[in-house]
Amino acid sequence: MKLNRPHEECGIFGIYNHQEASNLTYLGLYALQHRGQEACGIVSSDGHDLHAHKGMGLVADVFGNQEIFKKLPGRSAIGHVRYSTTGSSVLKNVQPIMVNYSRGSIAVSHNGNLVNAQRIKDELEAWGSIFQTTMDTEIIIHLLATSKANSLLDRLTDALSQVTGAYSLLFLTESRMIAARDPQGFRPLCLGRLGSAYVVASESCALDLIEATFIREIEPGEIVEITASGMTSYFPLKKTTPCPCIFEFVYFARPDSCIFGKNVYSVRKELGRQLAREHRVEADIVIPVPDSGVPAAMGYAEESGINFELGLIRNHYVGRTFIEPQQSIRHFGVKIKLNPVRELLEGKRVVVIDDSIVRGTTSRKIVKMVRNAGAREVHMVISSPPTSYPCYYGIDTPNRKELISASHTLEEIRRYITADSLGYLSEEGLLKAVGTGNTGYCKACFSGAYPIGFPSTKPDNQMELFDKEAAQ
Ligand code: AMP
User: Fold this and answer.
1) Which end of the chain is less congested by CB atoms within 10 angstroms, N or C?
2) Atom 9 in ligand 1: which residue has the minimum CA distance?
3) pTM metric for this prediction
4) According to the model, what pLDDT value does residue 4 have?
5) Do 214 and 290 belong together in one domain?
6) 296 and 422 share a domain?
7) How far is the C-alpha of 39 from the C-alpha of 84, rounded, in Å?
């Protein structure tokens, strides 16, 4: 069985030793909803057995009925929210994965993507392993179950020393919760306290919601075991230079979270200030693409002295599915989400700030929308460098073929999105704004410098810019 293409940016949450464990996990997942909207699940432990509830859809929909929590008893629970995927939107792929093996039951939630998953899976299958899902996460369970080591921690170390790639993990057994982060520390993971309970979450915004205290981040390469006797930290994996994902700052994490030692909002605002230094445009107003471009647009406005305005209003109630009209309304997708404020834009020279351009479709639609609302000039300024390389470590960036900047010049992209000018933040500017501290960052999606190897792929064809959609 082939594994799915990497596309698993997710959120994880767990709590140990709290009387409302599954309820608080639900709230934690609620706060992490931005990290995955396709599916979610919770597994709880009552000290003897594990209990699971999972489903496709948003946290509030899957756990919308209070009765569900009666089926998730116990003082410990872990949960997972899963990002949209293609071709694998099936319940069997929803996490946490829960299995029974010779030593009891275990459940796992995973954020990230393993880069040597297919090879290990082929080997395991050759030895007779049968996989139930198409998720790379299941490999860790198989390695753990087949390990010759004795204690769970040694088995886990055995398993993790065989996999490479990005993983922030949470395990739950009948009696313990274990958190682990890969040695590069690609994805965030933090530790908190709520009374006598321990909490682990992808982002600190989940701790805030349940009023837990932030203790610290789980370190790259660290395994934290939480049992009835307390918490123990281990560093059994081979040490390497950490390189957390810089795109978490640019787009993925919530602005109110602190990840990799920094507040995301402050970093984004600084990205905007740096952008204004690099791409100063003569304009009347600066507007963000909500919500992702808001902090950067505020920073840009502050630094440039150009007025900040909310020129595009977002409908916050747009679900993932809506019925598209047949022919009559084009570009419905962006229109249902964003509407321009004509009174603000009419006759103005407008700077539009967004965090990134992936395929270019969003920018193209937005530029047209702002111009149609009467703007005299539309300048697109992006608070990150061109996204020219796919991510193999868990962010859902498409393959090179679909990345507009992989095969087009700045001028070609500008013409495609129909902007009067286009500017991206430089790589140096990005690093300057984020501040390197004592660690580097993974910025492979911008630079192509991948910190760890990934499976070789066939060379992609170039993206065809002026395709059917572009011609509309
Ligand atoms: P595109 O239309 O493909 O150029 O998409 C660009 C938009 O997608 C920007 O407004 C970003 O905020 C957003 N974006 C960037 N990276 C991702 C991602 N990995 N998943 C979902 N949206 C993204």
Assistant:
1) C
2) 356
3) 0.92
4) 44
5) no
6) yes
7) 8
